[in-house]
Design brief:
- Helix content is about 40%, strand content about 5%.
- The protein is mostly helical.
- Strands 1-2 form a two-stranded antiparallel ribbon.
- The protein is globular, with a radius of gyration of 13 Å.
């Protein structure tokens, strides 16, 4: 279920990738698609997180633009 949720989250944020995904599958998406999305999720610690928090934690000091 987690993969499906990440996939929907990514495609919601990047609608231009829907057609390539539908025609060629998950391998048509960028390598780090699972890190880019717009939907929140529950982390293992029970907190509600936004994908931009993951990007900030991996790239400290980097400004992440949210749409």
């Amino acid at each position: 279920m987690e993969t499906a949720g990440h996939l929907i989250s990514y495609l919601a944020d990047h609608p231009g990738d829907i057609e390539p995904f539908m025609l060629g599958g998950i391998f048509e998406l960028p390598m780090r698609w699972i890190e880019g999305g717009r939907l929140t999720y529950h982390a293992n610690n029970g907190q509600i997180m936004h994908p931009s928090a993951l990007l900030r934690s991996r790239n400290p000091g980097t400004e992440v633009q949210e749409q």
